[in-house]
Every structure is written in structure tokens, then in C-alpha cells.
Amino acid sequence: MDGTVIVADDDRTIRTVLTQALTRAGCKVRSTGSVSTLWRWIEEGEGDAVISDVMMPDGNGLDLLPKIQRKRPNLPVIIISAQNTVMTAIKASEQGAYDYLPKPFDLKELLSKVSRALNQSNTPSLSNPASTKDGKGLPLVGSSPAMQDVYRIIARILNTDLNVMITGESGTGKNLITSILHQLGNRSNAPMITFPSATTSAQMIESSLQDEVQIPSGATVYLDEISEMPTDTQLRLLDLMQSPMVQEKNLRFISSTQKPLASLVNEGLFREDLFYRLSVMPFSLPPLRDRMDDISELTLHFLQVIAAEGQKHKTISNKALEHMRSALWPGNVRELSNFVQRVVVLCPEDEITYKFIEQVMQQAPKTSVGNIPLNGDKLSTSVEAHLRRYFDLHGDQLPPPGLYNRILREIELPLVALTLSATRGNQIKAAELLGLNRNTLRKKIRDLDIMVTRTKKMM
Fold first, then answer.
1. What would be the CATH architecture of the domain defined by 379-447?
2. What pLDDT is recorded for position 300?
3. Residues of the chain with confidence (pLDDT) below 70
4. Which end of the chain is more exposed for a tag (fewer CB within 10 A), N or C?
5. pLDDT reported for residue 124
6. What is 289-367's CATH number, 1.10.340.30, 2.60.40.1180, 1.10.8.60, 3.40.30.10?
7. What pairs with residue 50 in β-bridges?
8. Alpha helices in 50-173 (DSSP H)
């Protein structure tokens, strides 16, 4: 890399790490911990690229972006931020950032973005003109790497006119993403009309798309669960999308599906030509099992929402949250939301405890960690079946990194917990049964957040 990079971050450690890495890569670096110094250097013509934090003691890096755009429109600015929300990514896009990375960031990825920024004639890759909106009422929650990828994709496609195909399991938030794309995008002044694909006939789709009052020009058409659309409706929709009359209306189509449409196309169950028209921008939502770190944040969010709706505000213990992070949640975020609502209603105390969460989970076996039917098979056979299903659920994509430790934890937690239960909390016996040193067992109990209760054997 060749050029001068300005690094603005109030964290001295981050400035040091970036300065060393960029210098090794061949760049000259100037670093500061203040917005005022950053702006002074930019005004003086310093720097070929900028890496800026959002929150600094004397200002906000995002708020500076419009001034940078006016003063030096070809200067690429990469935003890094610990405020890892969808609105941060969207605002970075709206204000003209070259790119956005959440903290903690991957150093190699950041260096790669800096290299592209310096070598691509400073052409912005993230910026899209848009009117700023506050995003209220759109609770897209999560700070995990999987959700950061979602935020970046939203920021990139928010104000385009591309047709979007959202794929995700039931309960992952497909309707919520659709609402965000519409309400925060450049078509928010036009209506969004939703069609439940399974019950939409060819005649209904034809009359609606041809009706200027029902679907005016510039509107967004949402086809919910497009994989269920009847074959004759698929054909009529394709014909209409190709017709001059509908094309002149400049409609944007957003579709959602639980099933990978490419597989249905290969099976002859969905029209290939319609598939390519609708999925100009494919968008895959991660299941909750791929963003387990978000469960605590989601749970606390749901507790706040429930309290805002008039029910008594409840708190929840860290051990209870840890236990919830060890569940499978096959119904994804929707199942978690329903579970939290049920717990709030049933819990008699102001704080939701580990013991209470455990009790409610036992009454709902679908969310239990150990709810993998063995059917008389060896444990290895059952684990293999479970893992095979896990990989199959990701289709052509690979699961997120860290699979080895996630799987070991899922196996280790019920193994240790059930052993302690069988020995009635006697850690000496449990360690002997497991073949572990007592200190090793104690560490696992602490790391896995297992509550140990000594009980007497009843005669």
C-alpha cells in the first residue's frame, strides 16, 4: 500500500495497533484522538484515506462526514464503531462513508479495505444518498458478527431499486427486514403492499399490479413466502413484470422465503426466469443458533418492550441468561420472544432466576439442550445426524467460525450437568464418574455456569 492514512480514535491502543499495521504495510500514518484535529488535518489537505471512530471526546465521527464530503468529496473515510447497530451502518452509508466495520474488527479485513480505498481512485463503495430517519420502531437487535454482516448488507441496498430476495428460517425476522428496507429507504413515501404468496391468485396479482390506485408508481411490492406461490401465479407475475405498463410504474419487489429457492428451481417447483428477476439482490438471514451471543441482548430488549406495553418490569440474572444461551431455539427469535413473554407472566418475583428459567424450559422440551432423540442409536450416530442437519440447514454456505468449540460446549454442558444431577451434587463422585480431576471439574462448572445443589437420597 502507498499513501497517507489518518487514524482517528480516542482509544490509544487501537491507534497504536493500526499505526503499526499500516506502517508495516507501507503507509504513512497520522493518528489523533479528537475530531477537531481530524478536521484540521483534512482541511489542510492531509491524508489519502481516513479511519475514524464514531464517538470521540469532542465530537462524533459520523457527524463530520458531510463536511468531509463537501470539502474533499474524493477522500475515502472508513468508519469503525463499537455502536454495533443497524442504524450505525445505515447512517455511515447515508453520510457518505467509504465503508463501515464494527468493533472488534478483523485487522486483515480493515487493511484490505484501506488498500482498496487507496487503489480504487477513491470511489465510494458504501455511500448512498438518503434522507436520515431515526429507525424508531424497528427493533433489529444483535451485535454478533452474523448480525454485523446483516447490517452492512442493509446499508448497501437500502436506497437502491434492486429487487431483493430474503431467505431465512421461520422466526428469523424476514418481515422486520422488509419493513426496514421500506421505512428507511428512498421509497418510504410510497406504500408497501403485501401479498401472501400461498393465497394470491393469478387474477389477484394481475388486477392489483394494473391498478394505479391499489399499487401506485414507485410502490414496494412484498411477496411473502414466495416459495408457496402457485405455478399459474408465478407465470402471470413474470409476464406482468416484463410488461411495459408495470415496468413504467417503477415498482420494487421484495420477496421472502423459508426454503432455498435455488433448490426448488432445480426440482422444477419454481420458475427459473422468475427466480432471477426477483433475486437480483439475495439476502440470507442467520438463524439464532448462528448468533447465540445475541440471546442476552435480545432477551433484555424483549423485557424492555414488555414493560413498555404496561406489564411489570422484570430483571433477569446472568446465570439465567447463560442457561438460555445454551438452548437450541429451533423457532429462532420468534420462539425466544414468546418464551420471554411467557416467563414474565409466570414469574412471581421481580428477578427472573436461573432456577425459574430451568423450570420453564423443562416444561417446553423443544428448547431443551438435550432434546435430541436418540432412537436407540449410539451417541456418535445421533451427534452425526444432528451435525448433518446443522450443515444442511446452511445450504451451500458454511456455518460461522468457531463450530468446534460451540459443539463441544453443547455436549459438555448437559454431560456435566446430568452427571452432577445423578451424583446429587457430589462433586467428588461426579469427578470420579467423569474421569476428571476435581479442580478441572470445578473450572468446568464455573465456565459452564452450572448451578450445583447437594441433595440427600430419599429412602
1. Orthogonal Bundle (1.10)
2. 92
3. 120-139, 364-378, 381-382, 389, 392-396, 449, 451-459
4. C
5. 40
6. 1.10.8.60
7. 6, 77
8. 61-71, 86-94, 107-119, 145-157
Residues 310-361: tens digit of each pLDDT: 888 899 999 999 889 878 788 899 999 999 999 999 999 999 999 999 888 8
pTM: 0.60
pLDDT at 422: 83
Structural domain spans, the chain: 4-119, 160-286, 289-367, 379-447
Spell out a b/e string for 22-55, using b for 16 or more CB atoms within 10 Å of the CB, else e: beeeebebbbbbebebbbebbeeeebbbbbbbbe
**Res 393: pLDDT:** 62
**pLDDT of the residue at 244:** 92
Computed from CA positions of residues 296, 299, 305, 307, in that sequence, does the dihedral angle turn out positive or negative? negative
3-state helix, strand, coil in the chain (%, to 5): 50, 10, 40
CA distance 187 to 164: 14
Strand 77-81 to 59-60 pairing: unpaired
Residue with cell 470539502: 71
Cα–Cα distance, 404 to 400 (Å, whole number): 11
End-to-end Cα separation, the chain, in angstroms: 76
Supply the pLDDT for residue 232. Answer: 92
What number of residues does the chain have? 459
Query: From CA 187, how far away is CA 197, in angstroms rounded?
Result: 22
Could you give phi then psi for residue 165, rounded to 5 degrees?
-115, 115
DSSP state of 199: G
Beta-strand pair 281-284/59-60: unpaired
Decide if 4-119 and 160-286 have a common fold.
Answer: yes
Q: Is 90 helix (H, G, I), strand (E, B) or coil?
A: helix
Q: How far is CA 101 from CA 80, 84, 145, 159, in A?
A: 5, 9, 10, 20
What is the grid cell recorded at 118? 487507496
CATH of domain 4-119: 3.40.50.2300
Under CATH, which architecture does the 160-286 domain have? 3-Layer(aba) Sandwich (3.40)
438's grid cell: 476435581
- Which H helix or E strand runs over 364? none
Q: In 3D, which of 86, 79, 125, 93 has the Cα closest to residue 285?
A: 86
- List pLDDT tens digits, range 63-82: 888 888 888 888 999 999 88
**What's the rounded Cα separation, in Å, for the pair 88 and 155?**
9
Please give the helix or strand (H or E) that residue 400 lies within, else none. none
